[in-house]
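ok trying again, last paste got cut off:
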Amino acid sequence: AQRYAGVLKLVRKTSNWDVSNPDAARGVSAYYCHNSYVAQVLDMEMEGNTPKITDVYSAVDCGIVVNPDAATNMVEGGIIDGIGCAMYSELTFKDGAPEQSNFDGYRLIRHSEAPESIKVDFVKSNIDPTGLGEPPFPPIMGAVANALYKATGKRHYHQPFNKHIKSVTTDFKT
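nice, full thing came through this time. structure:
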């Protein structure tokens, strides 16, 4: 519980949670796996009916960070891949076989759709290193879903989310 609280407190601080941005919808999510804890905050602005993720803040407790640059790159990659899966990627099946046989038919996130800023912070720890490849990936999908709820006023349960965005509310204060 202390490590979970630690990442939530750190991401709250680094994301400047208490200062509201009237132009952005904010989503938060936290996750535990491979003995690591991750909390993420995501800022999203709507351009018409199109969500634009502007900033992501991530706090990670994965024990001792041996190589900070590589660890940061792993978290950033998981975040970008997770946003792509949440918003755009879809694998469909027909007669029991995938309809997409190559990347020309499978939608990946584009560079222009990636967040403008990703800030990664690690909790200082004396614990032996724990998992880092997988833990940053799943929670960003929850943060995207929560920000979409703030932006559209509707819960989105089916990915890719961009297929289901119909109505937009621009009042993010609710």
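cool. The beta strands are 25-33, 36-47, 50-61, 93-94, 97-98, 117-122. The chain has one domain: 2-87+113-162.
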